[in-house]
Amino acid sequence: MPWQFLKNAVVAYGGGLRSALDSIKGAFGLESGATPAQSRVGFTIAVVALAAKMSKADGVSLPVEAEAFKRQFKVPESECAHVRKLYELASQDVAGYESYAAQIARILEPQPELKVSVLESLFHIATADGILHPAEDRYLARVAEIFGFTECEFRCVRRGFVRDADSPYEVLNVSPAASDKEIKARYRELVKSHHPDALVSKGVPPEFLASAERRMVAITAAYDAILEERGLRIERALEPT
């Protein structure tokens, strides 16, 4: 949906909508006068549009997501109808969402912590139905990229809302908050426990070794993924003798 169309919507609905959008702006700490008027209007429209279009990423914009948006941004009851109209207009499709993300990134360039707040708010809405659809996941990853976040930074935010069954931390059965030293020790422990050579020495039948080898591949891949995420040099534990 073209930017100008949404901008015209603000003009069409007048002061009521402007007031509601100001309240959304306030939720991110952007007090009146902090940015030029055009930037303030652009930011608030972009936030509404980005959230609405994200709700459509999986093909269906659900009422529960709209309610999550209202709760997240604390829109006054007297202004809900106006904001809902703008939200409905934007949620018709995902077209142009990257331009809204870029708009927010430009306005919040000197305030990276507020970009984190925007992304967290989008995750709140995306997971309101209890599921993060793969299309929503890709949408949010792209928004994070436009915001200038690294893959590690995106994952850190994402981890607060999503627990993947194949998360590298879950593969190693270690907390994401564990120190580098703790993770390395856990990896060494698993290598010693699951390495095929160690299992042979314990008398494990050969037919079980194929599964052990696959498990070792998963353990090693998980450890490498964590080291890469943390920007560490990949180190492999010594194989047990």
What this model shows, in words?
By secondary structure, the chain is mainly alpha-helical. It folds into 2 domains: 156 residues, no CATH class; 62 residues, Helix Hairpins, CATH 1.10.287. α1 packs across α2 and α2 packs across α5. The chain is elongated, with a radius of gyration of 23 Å. The C terminus is likely disordered.
Observed structural traits:
12 helices; disordered C terminus; Helix Hairpins; mainly alpha; 241 residues
Topology of helices and strands:
Layout (H helix, E strand, L loop, with lengths): L2 H25 L9 H19 L7 H11 L6 H11 L6 H11 L4 H15 L7 H14 L3 H8 L9 H4 L8 H15 L1 H6 L7 H21 L12
- The average pLDDT score comes to 75
**What's the helix count?**
12
Backbone structural class: mainly alpha
Rg from Cα: 23 Å
- The dominant shape is elongated
User: In what range is the share of β-strand residues?
Assistant: under 5%
Distance between the termini: 63 Å
Number of domains: 2
Q: Poorly predicted ranges (pLDDT <50, ≥5 residues)? A: 29-35, 236-241
Total beta-strand segments: 0
The helix content is: 55-70%
Order of helices and strands: HHHHHHHHHHHH
Largest sheet descriptor: none
In short:
With 241 residues, the chain is mainly α.
